[in-house]
Amino acid sequence: MSESIPTPSSSDAQEDADVKLTAAQKARVERNRQRALLLRQSRLAKKPYSSESKQKVTRTVDTGAGFFLEEEDEEETRSKKTEVKHPLGPLLEAATDALVCEDCGKEFMDSWLLTTYNVNVCDVCKEDTEKHALVTKSEVKDTYLLKDADLEVRDPPLKFIIRKNPRNPRWGDMKLYYGPQVYDRAMEVWGSEEGLEKAHDERSSKREKTKRKKFDKKVKELRLAVRSSLVKVNSGPHEHEYGPESYDEESDTYSVSCDCGHVRTYEKM
After folding, report:
1. How far apart are CA 214 and CA 22, in angstroms?
2. pLDDT tens-place string over residues 149-187
3. Among 68, 70, 69, 67, which residue's Cα sits nearest to residue 30?
4. Where are the beta strands (DSSP E) in 78-207?
């Protein structure tokens, strides 16, 4: 009979492995194991629950090298690996509604003059206050001879903003119009700058005539006042003052007359 060779059992193999480890190696393995346990306990103390308010299910695996590994639950692992895909949004075309400034020719999206007076001028060019001046309603009437109907009724009505009077806040609010728009409206009403000048001349002549009439009226009133002061005022009844006597041979009568026109006739015996 052949002699059977005995095979070492698993316990004998583990004992042989333990025998091969030195005391220093065993101490290092124990320290690693204790450190792994402390780390695990600290993580559980910081996050005792998962985001779903449930205790995290983990399994600890002894590696045999002095530390432990934590295996996450398979369902949680699958949820982490799941990729969330969102539908793609619509493609946005490039902006084509950019405006071009009438002064500098550059593109812009919005400006104060555009919002207030619907004028395609950027905020940089707006700083030219001489070209883009704002005028009050009184200046509009005096300079361009425009009436309220020309500003508010004629199509399109001119836009304006309301501001407090800088001279005195207690005075009425001011209406500020955009100067170039007022000029265009004046040219529309009067036809040209020559027509506007002619209207100014006619208004000036009318004002001169009106002033002349007022002056003549005051002079006349003054003359009447001087004349009335020279007239003798008598509040009593009128007394006739007769002049020299005259004789009429045909009627053989005498007569005297008063300045008021009264004539007295009489005969002498």
Report:
1. 133
2. 999 999 999 999 999 888 887 888 899 999 999 999 999
3. 67
4. 99-100, 107-108, 134-136, 160-163, 174-178
**Identity (one letter) of the amino acid at 52?**
E
Reported for 185-192, long-range contacts at CB under 8 A and 24+ positions apart, including other chains, are: 185/144, 185/146, 185/150, 185/151, 185/154, 185/158, 186/144, 186/145, 186/146, 188/154, 189/145, 189/146, 189/150, 189/154, 190/145
The model's pLDDT over 40-54, given as tens digits with 9 standing for 90+, comes to 877 777 665 544 444
Fold of 99-201: Nucleotide Excision Repair Protein XPA (XPA-MBD); B Chain A (3.90.530)
For residue 89, give both structure tokens: 């949004």
Distance, in Å, from the CA atom of 253 to the CA atom of 260, rounded to the nearest integer, reads 21
